[in-house]
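Lab notebook page, bench 4
Experiment: in silico fold of construct C2
Operator: M.H.
Input chain length: 352 residues
Purpose: comparison with the prior construct
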Amino acid sequence: MAQAILAANSDNSLSPLLFKHLKGHKDVITGLAFHPKEDKIITSSLDCTAMLWNFKKPDERVIKFTAHTKSIHDVSWSPSGSYFVTASTDQDVRIWSPTFTGKTKAIRAHSSTVRTVDYDPTGKYFITGADDKSLKLFTTKDINFHRSFTGHTNWVRCTRMAPYNNLIASCADDKTAKIWDMETGKCLHTFQQTKGTPKYVAWHPDVPMIALALTSNSVKFYDTREKELIQFYKNHVDMVNAVSFHPNGKYMVTASDDGTMKICDLLEGRYIYSLDAQCGPVKSVAFSKDGKFIASGNGNDLLLWESNLVNERGSVGSSKYVTLEQDTPKPKGLIHPKNLKDELNKENENEN
């Protein structure tokens, strides 16, 4: 499939291109992460396994990691790339060595399903979130419990550590997103949702802002300093499962159950591309560390895309998988829009 798409786009080097279509998991891919230094990706799946792929060397053997006894929901690399950590329904968090021997150590972090895990930028800590409504912070060196964060009143779906200011973001089925101080464990602010439940949270790479993926088919972009909503996007026709920021902070990609990913220009406040590989719902998505690639979990399959975002104004060519959304209206709000509250009120009225 990848070869056919590359051929179809051979006259176009500026729009996103499907680079690889990789198969191996036997159930839905729930999480993925690019290696911080190498051309590798780790994926987690409902099939109870994690898999390590070298997407630049397709003939290299894929490494499968099999110690969890139930579904894996999330995966994260340490900043050095020496280890990765997984979160599972079996209530264990496992730290792995990314080698063929697959050495692993398990910790019983929570009393129920662990749905999310993330390393901090220094690699000294990792954080977990679970159906027991709590977040827990652990030290990496000795894998000791460090601190709990309590305040959510329903299952925690996602938690991510900011690349600055010792901040943590989380979202849960209580329809809230919370910002935490890592040092004190204090909740600094709660963003309450009236429509839709947040499924995923991501930090902007440069400034203290978060993006929320919501079951209401939308994405919201919050300034955590001013504690206000600054952008609102609703171009998907089904729930949004994940979001990821380009390393330059100018672009965002969203993944949805409608089977598409959409690339947004944050400076212009609008979507510019829609990517549809026709492989079913997209549950996970991420930009590579250099921004040159996008990885997506489309059902059981792993797809790699060349982002080509240096100049996003290229023609689409003849690919049926990439659509230039040049005629798409701007989303409801740009940076600090005067009319954002009015537009959101209209949106809520339409959903009632």
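Observations: The two ends are 42 Å apart (CA to CA). The first helix runs from residue 2 to 8.
Next step: discuss at group meeting.
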